[in-house]
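G., the chain you wanted modeled:
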Amino acid sequence: MQIYIVNSGNTLETIAAEFGVGMQTLAYANQILPPYRLAVGQALLIPDESTGQEKRAVSVNGYAYPYIRDWVLTETLPYLTTLSVFSYGFSVNGDLIPPAVNDNWMIEKALQQDVKPILTLTPFDESGMFNNQLISVLTNDPALQQTLIDQMFFVMEEKGFAGIDIDFEYILAKDRIPFANFVENVRTQAAPKGYTVSVALAPKTSADQPGLLYAGKDYRLLGAAADSVLLMTYEWGYTYGPPMAVAPINKVREVVEYAITEIPAEKIDLGIPNYGYDWTLPFTKGVSAARTIGNMEAVDIAVANQAVIQFDETAKSPYFNYVQNGVEHEVWFEDVRSIQEKFRLISEYRLRGMGYWQIMKLFRANWMLLADTFEIK
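Predicted structure as tokens:
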């Protein structure tokens, strides 16, 4: 498939004619609705049915909350290997806490499409935040761990889960080894039952990287303890930070290059963000808060405000500025160009695959490009 960048004066009809594809086919692939307005600088995926290239097989995971819209999940499942249900928590007594919304329907839907549902385990407290004290209690108490593991296995067998994804963040430095031991304990007991165990890793670039996100995550130990890992290679641009790319490819590459020194490449999934941010300017640290938006929503904002979409050649990410009600905004998001760069990185380092955070909003061109680039395991 090809990628075309919209120029001034282009229409969907003229672009379709230039490439010899149906206008409706082009509109469908890029989620463009009547009256088919385009933004200058917008990246369009040009569908092409012909392919003879050999494709490398990769694993594709998508995280989703149980309140995902049925049609979005239906369209996305054909492109997934696994579906991580977000999320299950646990109490200080080791009791498993299910999601607030029943997840049975999405598990059944995944199984019908031969997609393996994964139980995502998170240490959320009552406020919905990661609780590192809860992590500390669990990882240092074998009896508590066993209570939780037993309850997880019971639920997994009952519901049809195929694996566990351990997504613990803000782990205290003193719990670095206990956490790795916990992951190994889960995997040791899960393997005989046929369950896989993955673990999410903060995006480190060195073993001794300081900071609450990093100190408790030992890449070497966790890579050995789990069946696979997810590099959470996103959130450089984030809600409370200054405007910048969510997953700049130069920063993502640094994480991958460190990760492969500690973990076999065939165990590594690259994290890919399926969202962007809209900041108001000027940015004021401690005051400003960006609004999370979908990738298609970003394009709609550009169209509505006649903004020209730019492409940062270092970050390999699209962005634009616009003014609304006298307030300037800056938007960074993902398009097929930035996604293609991430696919190239996966191929270059022969990584296991990728994991999308998250699939709640449909990004059809991404999935079509994925299927054109790789074979999905």
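The chain has a mean pLDDT of 97.

Shout if anything looks off.
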